[in-house]
Amino acid sequence: MDFSNNQAIYLQIAEIICEKVLRDQFHEDQRIPSVRELAVQLEVNPNTVMRTFDFLQANEIITNKRGIGYFVAAGGKEKAYALRRTEFLKNELPKLVKTAALLQIDLDELKDHYLAARKNIPNI
After folding, report:
1. Nearest CA to 29 among 60, 68, 70, 1?
2. Under a CB-based contact definition with an 8 Å cutoff, are residues 10 and 48 in contact?
3. How far is 75 from 29, CA to CA, in rounded Å?
4. Does the pLDDT of residue 33 top 70, yes or no?
5. With helix as H, strand as E and coil as C, how does the chain read?
């Protein structure tokens, strides 16, 4: 898998898992792939996946059932939503606003493009 150089790989993997939770591809109390399974699938070091899982556990999105595996935590979808929303508002939106201002794109034009682009996004 190709990862961006702009963000730590473990955070990019966390975004992938959160997106699957938000899209109901991983349901509450459902087992998610193991550290090894995910490391092989994404072609990364298992330590990187473990760091991802530690991060997601700390944010109460997944939980570890000792000897069984990792599962989406009760309320994990809401926690994933809150985490991704906070990260977007803190990190991505300021970049978007800066670029829009630089290019003299006003809020109405941005809104029009947002609404058009949103129509092309499946499962939302």
Report:
1. 70
2. yes
3. 9
4. yes
5. CCCCCCCCHHHHHHHHHHHHHHCCCCCCCCECCCHHHHHHHHCCCHHHHHHHHHHHHHCCCEEEECCCEEEECCCHHHHHHHHHHHHHHHHHHHHHHHHHHHCCCCHHHHHHHHHHHHHCCCCC
Return d(Cα 82, Cα 89) in angstroms, integer. Answer: 11
Quickly state the pLDDT bin for 2 (edges 50, 70, 90). confident
**Is the confidence at residue 44, as pLDDT, over 70?**
yes
Tokens of 86: 């906070």
Task: State the residue for tokens 């994404």.
Answer: 42
